Amino acid sequence: MPPRDLMTIDDLALEGKKVFLRVDFNVPVDKEGRISDPAKIKDAVPTVRELLDKGASLVIGTHQGRPGSYDFLSTEQHAHYLSEFLGMEVEHVDEVLSKRVQERVKSLRPGEVIMLENLRFAAEENIELPLSKLLKTNLVRRLSPLFDAYVNDAFQTAHRGHPSLVAFPYLMPSAAGRLMERMVREMAEIDSIPGRRTFLLGGSKVEDKLKVAIHSLKNHRAETILTGGLVGALLAYAAGNKIGITLDYMKDLDILVPAAKEVLGEFRERIYYPVDFIVVRNRNRRVVPVYGVPDDAEIVDIGPGTLEIYKEKLEESDLVVANGPMGVFEDPEFRRGTVELIKIAERSSGEFVFCGGHLSSAAKALGLERSSRVYTAGGAILYSLAGLPLPAIKALREGQRHAHH
After folding, report:
1. DSSP E strand stretches across 261-372
2. Is the distance from CB of 176 to CB of 2 less than 8 angstroms?
3. In 3-state terms, what secondary structure has residue 114?
4. Model pLDDT for residues 51-103, shown as the tens digit of each residue
């Protein structure tokens, strides 16, 4: 059963129609620029097949990485992988908004699929704007006249307000793809689990995690928040501790530190940062208390004391939502904190949700899919369970009322 107010593929007349399908194929890439895990591309296959079986022609759009990062790449490989998984050719067009794209889309026949270049190669796809401005973007004005319908299957980026995610439902018949539909339904199920809810927040993307922490504490969407990774380091720093050279990895401190101080002041009893860390200094590893991080050391994991406190909190919880590792997870030596906390899921009576790339692969490696819910999506799940807005889903719900018939 789809959530009642969300249109699905079943609600669209697709025979002979041109559909713009927004997916999330933002996948892990190795340092040579090769896709290292195409799981997200495979996940989209059922939606793609079904649209084609119903007589549509498809133009697929996704982003990959963000400007300036090593994984900000062309979607050419993505098209190859999708061709392979579908068993048919997916033609790659190496532009997003050119005349050539417009001509190619106009000439599409039912059953054909093309993939556009990385949508973020179009500058406007990198900014989040209010709807009135999104509708005026070049991207939306050029692409929307080419299509009869829009399908959004990119649940993983539902918490972002970019043009390709939000504007189209206000301009044409639109629906959630099968992946989006399933995730919205599962979020509602998870959200209805009663009892004590704990968020375990680590990793980077500090601004998102802080927003989730503040919102969920204020609105009682979480009883307790445990932090590690850069999020934990930020809170330790805001509480007056030194964090050594880990400080160099922090951006926007002028905004984040005051926000962190405020949340620590207001919710002292409910939000935790590590009491000790594992640090590396001149290649030597040692455990130090939170107030004793040397200036020239880097924080690489949570310490044993923190692990004990967090274990106890997790075991007392009815629902744990975990996102982001506790340390420098890329290095197997600094995974212990994360792995030990993930293992609690096996012997705990509560429900565990692991979300985001690192934690989903770690939970899978430990064989926890049977006892827990494991998702590649990170931010969108946190936003959803913290009660924060998901602009892409809001657009699917509202847009139909504006655009329809």
Report:
1. 271-272, 276-281, 284-289, 298-302, 319-323, 351-355
2. yes
3. strand
4. 999 999 999 999 999 999 999 999 999 999 999 999 999 999 999 999 999 99
* Cα atoms in the 13 Å half-sphere on the side-chain side of 250: 25
> For the segment 94-131, what is each residue's pLDDT rounded down to a tens digit?
999 999 999 999 999 999 999 999 999 999 999 999 99
d(CA 360, CA 40): 12
| CATH number of the structural domain 193-371 | 3.40.50.1260
| CA–CA dist 46, 23 (Å, integer) | 12
- Contacts of residues 84-90 at CB distance under 8 Å and 24 or more positions apart, as own/partner, are 85/38, 85/41, 85/42, 85/45, 86/45, 86/48, 86/49, 86/113, 88/113, 89/113, 90/60, 90/114, 90/115
Two tokens, residue 367: 């064989």
Given this chain, do its domains 9-184+389-403 and 193-371 carry the same CATH topology? yes
pLDDT in tens, 287-344: 999 999 999 999 999 999 999 999 999 999 999 999 999 999 888 899 999 999 988 8
Give the model confidence (pLDDT) of 222-262 as tens digits: 999 999 999 999 999 999 999 999 999 998 999 999 999 99
Q: Which of 5, 82, 3, 99 is nearest to 38 (CA)?
A: 82
Q: Bridge-partner residues for 61, per DSSP?
A: 22
Domain-by-domain residue ranges, the chain?
A: 9-184+389-403, 193-371
Do residues 283 and 159 make contact, with C-beta atoms less than 8 angstroms apart? no
Instruction: Report the distance separating Cα 169 and Cα 183, nearest Å.
Output: 19
| CATH class of the structural domain 9-184+389-403 | alpha beta
Distance CA 52, CA 2 (A): 21
Percentages (nearest 5) of helix, strand, coil residues in the chain = 45, 15, 40
